[in-house]
Amino acid sequence: MTQLNASLYTKDAQLATAAKSAKDKWMASESAYRTAQTSHDTAHDAATYASSQYKMYSTAVTTAQEEYDKMKPKYDEEKAQLSSEKPILIELKTMLAELLAPAAAKSNQKSILQQVDKVALRLMAPTTDKKLKNRVQNLRTKLAETTTDSTASTALGFINNLITEITARISEIDSELVDLSNSLTDNAAKQKEWEGKVVDLSDAADLAKNEMNTADLTRQKLGGEYTVINQSYEDNHATFLDESVKLAEEIHAINTILTKVDTLIAECSS
Fold first, then answer.
1. Pick from 127, 128, 116, 114: which is nearest to 158 by CA?
2. Residue range 152-211, pLDDT digits in tens
3. DSSP string covering 58-96, please?
4. Could you give the CA distance from residue 63 to residue 19 in angstroms, rounded to a whole number?
5. Which tens digits make up the pLDDT trace of 21-37?
6. What own/partner pairs with CB < 8 Å and gap ≥ 24 does 196-201 have?
7. pTM tops 0.70, yes or no
8. How far apart are CA 4 and CA 240, in angstroms?
C-alpha cells in the first residue's frame, strides 16, 4: 500500500515536471518570437524608408537633369553673347581713352570717332537679359552722340560700368551652371547610395521575416506540445488527488485494524 502511494506521488511529480519543462520551452519560444518580430518590424521599416529615400532622390535626379538640360543651352548662349561683347567694349574703351588724351589732334579725333562708329555697329544687344539689352542700346545711342570730350567721357564711364556688369553676369552664369551640375551630381550620388541600401536592407528584411516565421512555427509547435503534456498532467493530477485521498483512508483503516489486532493479542497473552 505504501509503495502504491509512493508510486502515485512519483508519477504526479514526473508529469508536473514535464509540464513545467514544456511550459518553460514554450515561453522561451514565445519570447524568441517576439524578439524576431521586433527585429523584422525594424528591418521592414528600414527597408521601407530606404525605398522612399531612393524614390525621392530618383525624382530629384530627374528634376535636376531636366533643369540642367533646360538651362545650360540658355546660359551657354547668353555667356557666348556676353563674352563676344566684352572685347568690343574694351576696344571702344581704348579708343575713347585715346580720344580723350590731351595729345590727340583734331584730325586724329575725327578718325577715332569714325572707328568708334564702325566698332559700335558690332555691338549686339543681349536677348536674354533685358537690363543689359537696354544698357547696350543706350551705349550705342551715346556713342552715336559722341562728338566732344564731355560726351566721350560720359560714354567711357558708361562702357566701364557695362564691362563690370557683363563680367559680373558671366561670373553669375558660371556659378549657376556649377550649382546645376552639383545638384545633379549630388542627387545622382544619393540615388546610387540609397539604391545600394534598398538592396541590402530589403535582403535584411527578408532574412528577418524568415527568422520570424521560423520562430513562429517553433512557438506553435512547442505551444501544442505544452498543451498536450499539461493536459495529461492535469488529468492525472485530478485522478491522483482522488486516489491519494482514498488510499490515505484505506491506509488509516488498515492501521486501525492492525492496532486493534495488536491490542487483542497483547490481552490474550497476559
1. 116
2. 777 788 888 888 988 999 999 999 999 999 999 999 999 999 999 999 999 999 999 999
3. HHHHHHHHHHHHHHHHHHHHHHHHHHHHHHHHHHHHHHH
4. 65
5. 999 999 999 999 999 99
6. 197/50, 197/53, 197/54, 198/47, 198/50, 198/51, 198/54, 201/43, 201/46, 201/47, 201/50
7. no
8. 11
